[in-house]
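Can you make up a protein sequence with its backbone structure tokens?

===
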Amino acid sequence: MYNKVILIGRLTKDPDVRVTSTGTPVATFTLAVNRTYNKEETDFINCVTWRKTAEIVGQYLSKGSLISVEGRIQNRSYDTDNGKRYITEVICDNVVFLDTKGNDHQTVKPAQVADVKFDDKNMDISSDDLPF
């Protein structure tokens, strides 16, 4: 059995970031995804991220941001006065920022990604170091 989903779309509103009673950050947002065969039809997919990803999503994304999410579909239910309610959502393992609406389509780097610089002059690599 396999449960994997990959979506590309735009946020319909700013992410809602909260903290659980145990102190774990969680962000929820809705992704508008156009259907490939008919650009006039759009699906609105509820998405959830947890922990550090939730904090980064809340900090860098806003309504209209173009992102890619990778995760799994989850169904859950809860009881109300009007009966049982069912929710289907994507639990996002990976979120890639493809652009942000206010930044002229520039890629936004998450806070945990650092720029790494290499000094070619001081690197001594022989053919024995190569894995092939």
In short: The chain has one helix and six strands.
